[in-house]
Write a structure and sequence with these properties.
heterodimer, A: 378 residues, alpha+beta, 10 helices, B: alpha/beta, five-stranded parallel sheet, globular
Chain lengths: 378, 131
């Protein structure tokens, strides 16, 4: 067999592999015009091959936010890097489907410039639907849990408050345990509800006059027992005009409550926690600083991931869902703010949150968009 | 009924929760009327014209929920339009809270997230502010 025959065989093999691949694969030129599509592309989109070739992926795409297309084209064309995203597209019959998309530039060896783009899509509609059902179940179950928890909470409050007469030390201690466990359970239910609302996209942002001092005091009061037991020093600093601002009360509440609760939980006895707010014309800044256990350097990248808890804090605080910072970051982003931190293990952590004072109340998170040509990016 | 006692109508479907709210409010010096359905509450309001305050849950027994109850109470021709209402419920959807606020409800509380003492304190503040 001549080298040409071998090459032809190889080529045939590769083409067969791509043609019959389970994932939808298309190749486009630099403008997004499709020059190749495999069988799965026809099956997923419902279009015949002759309808796809010469067209752009806008045939089934183009439904997402323009900002995302811009990001996609910047990634593959200017940065010459692969792009990974999630898109909602429309089949020929009008039904929507969700796909995981990966687009890679094929770089010319001589010019180092992209020549073509290879787009691979995998239909994940069924998976997304089952995720949604799980999320809705969490939401429903959490609501149902809140009613008995409210009963436990308020009945123990009445007993501890002495409204029904004084308690002896053991009675008081036992009821305190019930009360604390109930508060913890309520916290967990709130985390799960917030997570499900984030994932269902059911976060609504509104702006109203909110007193940050009240939220900080509320968060400190909720954790008052731990503060007293650990003999923590709490310092609050509010620069002038930085505490009464027009902002989404729920978002700022979740952000402050989570950061303060974490600082208290992950600071050893006799530690110090400092909460500072300041304001400029456009932003309010919140800083929560502790001299606690800190976050190990190698795990700092994962700290905002769902269900993640750093290894070094598990022996100190066994309870925790790993949802607090994931939720905090989601809420910061919902109000178009930023969050960052500095941390050194065994020295402490400082979180810096910056939130805009004016934002589009109809803002929603920009979802990944479909693959379309550069002329569509506007 | 002494003249100084304010009257609170508590509308809540869960018996144990209704019990503890009534207990706390009585302890704090209020006269308390309780109802588990919107219809029952509206009947009481017809009979007792001088209700000072309404403590309301979203999910109720009977056909109407809290929102539907508020729609009746806050109608332009209603005699009870000016009676302040606090929504104290475990329903967590902000859209729902917003619907209540736009109908004229004073404040909303997520039941499991607040102490009874804190809600009663705000209620007193609201009543004193009005008087």
């Amino acid at each position: 067999m001549s080298p040409y025959d071998v090459a032809a065989d190889d080529l045939h093999l590769f083409k067969q592999a791509v043609d019959s691949a389970y994932d939808h694969i298309v190749i486009t030129d630099l403008h997004g015009t499709i020059i190749y599509a495999n069988k799965a592309a026809c099956q997923t989109t419902g279009y015949a091959l002759h309808e796809i070739i010469g067209n752009t992926p806008r045939l089934w795409g183009g439904l997402m936010e323009p900002a995302y297309y811009k990001k996609m084209w910047t990634t593959i064309k200017e940065k010459k890097l692969p792009f990974i995203g999630e898109v909602t597209n429309m089949r020929k019959d009008g039904n929507l489907y969700t796909a995981e998309v990966r687009i890679s530039p094929m770089i010319d060896k001589a010019t180092k410039e992209p020549m073509y783009f290879v787009g691979i899509e995998r239909d994940i509609t069924d998976k997304k639907e089952s995720d949604m059902i799980k999320t809705e179940f969490v939401s429903l179950a959490s609501h149902q849990l809140r009613t008995p928890l409210s009963t436990l909470n308020w009945y123990s409050e009445i007993l501890l408050g002495g409204d029904l007469g004084g308690l002896n030390d053991s009675q008081s201690q036992y009821i305190n345990e019930i009360y604390d466990a109930t508060r913890r359970m309520i916290g967990t239910v709130n985390d799960l509800l917030n997570m499900s609302r984030i994932e269902l996209g059911k976060i609504r942002i509104e702006s109203q006059m909110t007193d940050i001092r009240e939220i900080v005091q509320g968060a400190l009061a909720d954790n008052g027992k731990a503060v007293t037991q650990k003999k923590l020093t709490i310092k609050t600093k509010y620069t002038k005009g930085s505490y009464k601002i027009a902002i989404d009360p729920q978002a700022i509440g979740v952000i402050i409550t989570n950061l303060i609760a974490n600082a208290i939980k992950y600071t050893p006895p006799s530690g110090t926690i400092t909460i500072t707010t300041s304001k400029d014309d456009l932003h309010v800044n919140l800083i929560v600083e502790d001299n606690g256990y800190g976050i190990p350097k190698l795990q700092q990248r994962q700290i905002f991931s769902k269900f993640f808890r750093a290894d070094n804090i598990k022996p100190h605080a066994t309870a925790g869902t790993g949802l607090g910072l994931y939720i905090t970051k989601a809420f910061v982003e919902f109000v178009q703010g930023t969050i960052r931190f500095e941390s050194t293990e065994n020295k402490g952590t400082t979180f810096y949150v910056r939130l805009p004072l004016t934002y589009n109340t109809k803002h929603r998170v920009v979802k990944p968009t479909a693959w379309i040509g550069p002329h569509d990016t506007k | 009924m002494t003249q100084s006692k304010k009257i609170v109508l508590v509308i809540e479907d869960e018996e144990p929760i209704l019990g503890v709210i009534a207990f706390k409010l009585k302890q704090e010096g209020f006269e308390v009327i309780t109802a588990r359905t919107a219809d029952q509450a509206l009947e009481y309001m017809e009979d007792i014209p001088n209700i000072d305050f309404i403590w309301l849950d979203h999910y109720l027994e009977g056909d109407r929920n809290g929102l539907e109850f508020v729609e009746v109470v806050k109608r332009p021709d209603s005699n009870w339009r000016s009676v302040p209402i606090f929504l104290i419920s475990n329903t967590s959807y902000p859209e729902k809270h917003q619907a209540y606020i736009s109908l004229g409800v004073e404040r909303y509380y997520t039941k499991s997230n607040h102490s009874l003492a804190a809600v009663v304190k705000d209620l007193k503040h609201e009543l004193n502010g009005d008087s």
